[in-house]
Structures are given as structure tokens and as C-alpha cells.
Design brief:
single chain; mainly alpha; about 0% strand; globular
Length: about 110
């Protein structure tokens, strides 16, 4: 039974990420390819590719992951509170972002 629940949760997250990537104009299949999915996420939120390297540094990776959640929330017109929800209750907030009425707005170019 626990495997079925785990499978359902994983499937929900994968489908949600696929839909989020599609809403952002990226290929949905990119959400299931390790490492590449982070590169596409960085592209979606307008961060440079080298932020991927920061995710391999202990402690810094937690901070960077939170910053990525904030960036993703903002590109879909949500606030920091929503990003906190994405970090703490991703199983609820990612599907809300994916299947809700939020629309993607490309971030401004950063210097």
C-alpha cells in the first residue's frame, strides 16, 4: 500500500513539473531528465547556468533551492509566501502552480 501512495505522489509531482515547464514554453519531458531539468528551470527563472554548481555545495544548496522556488513563484506571478509553500508543502503547491490560472511571465534580463 505504501508503494502505491509513494507512486501516486511521485506521479503527481512529475505531472505538475511537466505542466509547469510546458506553461513556461519549455519541453515538458525536460522535467524528468536529471541535471537537465535544473538547467531548464534556471532558464525559466532567468538565472545563469552556473547556479547548478551551487546545488552541489552542502548548506548552500538549501539556500539556492529556496531561491529557485522564489524565482519560479515570481515568474508565475506568485509571491514569496507561495514560494515558502512550494518549499515546505511542494505536494500541494506545485500542482496549484501547474493546474491553476497562473501564467508565466519571462523574467527581465539580469546584468
Amino acid at each position: 500500500m505504501q508503494y502505491l501512495i509513494t507512486f501516486a505522489i511521485v506521479a503527481l509531482i512529475i505531472v505538475s513539473l511537466w505542466k509547469i515547464y510546458t506553461k513556461a514554453g519549455q519541453p515538458g519531458w525536460a522535467a524528468i531528465i536529471p541535471i537537465y531539468n535544473v538547467l531548464i528551470l534556471l532558464k525559466i527563472i532567468g538565472r545563469p547556468w552556473w547556479w547548478l554548481l551551487l546545488l552541489f555545495i552542502p548548506i548552500a544548496n538549501i539556500v539556492v533551492a529556496c531561491m529557485l522556488a522564489v524565482g519560479l513563484a515570481k515568474t508565475f506571478g506568485k509571491g514569496v509566501g507561495f514560494a515558502v509553500g512550494m518549499v515546505l508543502l511542494g505536494i500541494i503547491f506545485y500542482p496549484i502552480l501547474a493546474f491553476g490560472s497562473a501564467t508565466y511571465t519571462a523574467p527581465a534580463a539580469q546584468a
